[in-house]
Amino acid sequence: MNATPLPRSLSKPLLAALEDTPVVCLLGPRQSGKTTLARALVPRYSYVSFDDADALALAQSDPNGFMAALPDPVILDEIQRAPGLLRAIKMSVDRDRRPGRFLLTGSANLLLLPKLGDSLAGRMTIMELHPLTAAEQSRQPGGFLAAWLAGKLRPAFAPDTVPPDPLALAARVMAGGFPEPLTRTPARARAWHRDYVRALVERDVQDVARVREPHDLARLLELLALRTGELLNISTLSNELDLRRETVEHHLAACERLYLVRRLQPWHRHESKRLIKTPKVHFIDSGLAATLGNLVAEDWQSRRDRCGHLLESFVLQQLNAQAGWTDPDLHFWHYRDKDQVEVDLVITRGARTWGVEVKASATPSQADTAGLRRLADQCGADFAGGVLFHAGAHTVTLGDPRFLAVPLSKLWEM
Fold first, then answer.
1. How would you write 353-411 as a 3-class SS string?
2. What is the C-alpha separation between 372 and 341, in angstroms, rounded?
3. For 165-258, where are the E strands, in sequence order?
4. Which of 359, 376, 260 is nearest to 317 (CA)?
5. Strand ranges, E, within 59-101
6. Residues linked to residue 388 through DSSP beta bridges, in sequence order
7. What's the rounded Cα separation, in Å, for the pair 183 and 175?
8. Which of 19, 191, 246, 324 is buried most deeply by CB count within 10 Å?
9. Phi, psi (5° rounding) for residue 323?
10. Residue 273: which pLDDT band, with cuts at 50, 70 and 90?
11. What is the C-alpha separation between 209 and 211, in angstroms, rounded?
């Protein structure tokens, strides 16, 4: 990887938030680049990290006194470790609402922590920094999502285009987006992923949940890695782990709070018995899921089903991150009905609805649009279009001008 720091597409929205909001909170997984981005964007800000034991002890023992002694403006790093400080920050902002006073970073989803979420609601701008997208790794602006939603994608067929290398796609998906392992060989990257999970389970999980047996949470993560992109079945997980259902739910919530996995809820236009209201589970980072699921790039052809689900998680990872700087009001779902007709990803803005299918094949066909057609019928006039990502080289329509087959490479070439 080039030694020059990779640009982060969230930079402009983050600076804009600091221009009009007293407190901006930048959340995301550990090691996703939050501190690096914050300190690079606002180098004049003072910096305090709550990974520092002395700073943490002071903040915990006397939040108001700690606040009174802070320089202004300031970056407060790993704020989830000092939750008592949030009330003191709120009181300080109520007295002085100048924009850009506090830039907080956190490696836990504070909105999923009831006490912290209540403190934050409506009082600050919250933004999420994901691991590096494929576009950021390629030093591209990451404009696929914006172009598609604006209706700017057009069919494009270039007869002399060299077909993409399947192993190159596999390597990209297996690498994921955490900056540090991207600088390593695949074997060393997998070692980093394992160390990363070990550190989170042994230390950080206690910031977000009471977990008596961290080893059980680690085993749950391994099972979830084998099921990324699949429907979530708590009962099956409970049986395989020999744990109570409530314990599995508790551990799963901790994994969500730490930005390890996310539940993708089912889409439905109306309450209907036709729809199976079961969420899917997706790893936040495809590289982490590949390591925990013991997948390598050479498995791309021989373990197609597993790799297909991993590719689905990868695409969600890219589009969800792009939404952060394209349109934060977008919502993500999946679709599946009683006939087992499904759409991998549904995106909504209000009533407007888009569908996304993901195929590892390089030769998409009209038969692959069955789910998109069903979704379009359900949505009626609210259906705005569908994309079928594939491993080929051309953008073509698939029988209906609303459905475009688009190369996966467009995610990092626009």
1. EEEEEECCCCCCCHHHHHHHHHHHHHHHHHEEEEEEEECCCCEEECCCCCEEEEECCHH
2. 9
3. 230-231
4. 260
5. 74-77
6. 357, 405
7. 10
8. 324
9. -60, -30
10. very low
11. 6
**Cα 224 from chain centroid?**
16
CA distance 344 to 280: 10
Q: How many CB atoms lie within 10 A of CB 51?
A: 12
Task: Name which CATH class applies to 11-128.
Answer: alpha beta
Q: Provide the sign of the torsion angle of the four alpha carbons 83, 84, 89, 90, taken in this order.
A: positive
| Tokens, residue 336 | 């599946």
**Mind listing the pLDDT tens digit for each residue in 165-196?**
999 999 999 999 999 999 999 999 999 999 99
Both tokens of residue 187? Answer: 């074997």
What residue type is 403 in one-letter code? F
The pair of three-digit structure tokens given for residue 145, joined into one six-digit string: 């999502």
Strands (E), 90-214: 102-106, 125-128
- CATH 3.40.50.300 in the chain: give the residue spans: 11-128
Place of tokens 């172009």: 147
Residue 401 Cα distances to 6, 153, 297, angstroms? 37, 11, 34
Residue 277's pLDDT band, with cuts at 50, 70 and 90, is: confident
Q: Rounded to 5, what percent of the chain is helix, strand, coil?
A: 45, 20, 35
Neighbours of 68 (CB within 10 A): 10
